């Protein structure tokens, strides 16, 4: 199996990017796929979600202070992490100061990465130099969108920026849009999902239902399959991982 590089990305915060990235990654690992999660956010939530103590991470790698072998943390069987966190601010400054091909700094840092089936990037809720680097590194984008009006309105602006990157980054494609916080009991939730499907026919993946277990699990340093394996949250992320693994 060739290495597949996927970014979970959206410039809006609070849409469950980290939750989706971590739990889809855990589901892939449970299916036997060697999976690496790369935390590209200064909040560093990926390692916290899995109860992993972060040492040297992505910032040190990008800045040349650590090698690839130093920053890969084994969090679970088949599931590895490269930590993010506050030190990424320095990495962003380094990227900004580079005169030539600054958009490829991350790709160069990860060029020798081997031994994985999937590399999943959890990006920051912003549009900055590191996020642009993420888009130049990956081939696939998965865009979580929460079922609220503001999130729906913002997706158009974000996709416009993605299209600008696609002019210079051949092969970058949007694999899917993932509705999050879907609540069938709330009419607005169903209406927004319907609008998403109208705007992006064929691109909307199965929705992740609102499930309090998903927000509780990181507090215990566990993914959803450890914390509540019989929950809707576990079922929904297992379904997303299956879809991703099939390449659909």
From TrEMBL:
Transmembrane segments: none
Gene3D superfamilies the UniProt entry points to: P-loop containing nucleotide triphosphate hydrolases
Top-level taxon of origin: Bacteria
Domain AAA: 4-167
Pfam families: AAA_31 (PF13614)
Cross-referenced SUPFAM superfamilies: P-loop containing nucleoside triphosphate hydrolases
Annotated protein name in UniProt: ParA family protein
Taxonomic source organism: Rubrobacter radiotolerans (Arthrobacter radiotolerans)
């Amino acid at each position: 199996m060739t290495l597949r590089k996927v970014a979970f990305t959206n410039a809006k915060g609070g849409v469950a990017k980290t939750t989706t990235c971590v739990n889809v990654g855990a589901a892939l690992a449970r299916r036997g796929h060697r999976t690496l999660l790369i935390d590209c956010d200064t909040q560093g939530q990926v390692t916290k979600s899995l109860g992993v103590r972060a040492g040297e991470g992505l910032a040190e790698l990008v800045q040349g202070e650590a090698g690839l072998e130093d920053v890969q943390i084994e969090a679970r069987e088949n599931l590895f992490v490269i930590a993010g966190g506050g030190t990424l601010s320095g990495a962003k400054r380094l990227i900004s100061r580079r005169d030539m091909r600054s958009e490829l700094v991350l790709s160069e840092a990860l060029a020798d990465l081997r031994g994985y089936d999937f590399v999943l990037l959890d990006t920051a809720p912003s549009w900055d130099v590191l996020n642009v680097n993420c888009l130049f590194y990956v081939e696939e984008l998965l865009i979580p969108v929460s079922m609220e009006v503001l999130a729906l309105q913002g997706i158009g602006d974000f996709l416009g920026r993605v299209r600008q990157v696609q002019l210079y980054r051949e092969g970058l494609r949007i694999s899917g849009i993932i509705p999050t916080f879907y609540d069938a009991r709330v009419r607005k939730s169903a209406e927004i999902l319907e609008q998403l499907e109208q705007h992006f026919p064929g691109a909307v993946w199965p929705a992740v239902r609102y499930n309090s277990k998903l927000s509780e699990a990181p507090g215990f340093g566990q993914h959803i399959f450890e914390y509540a394996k019989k929950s809707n949250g576990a079922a929904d992320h297992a379904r997303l991982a299956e879809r991703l693994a099939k390449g659909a």
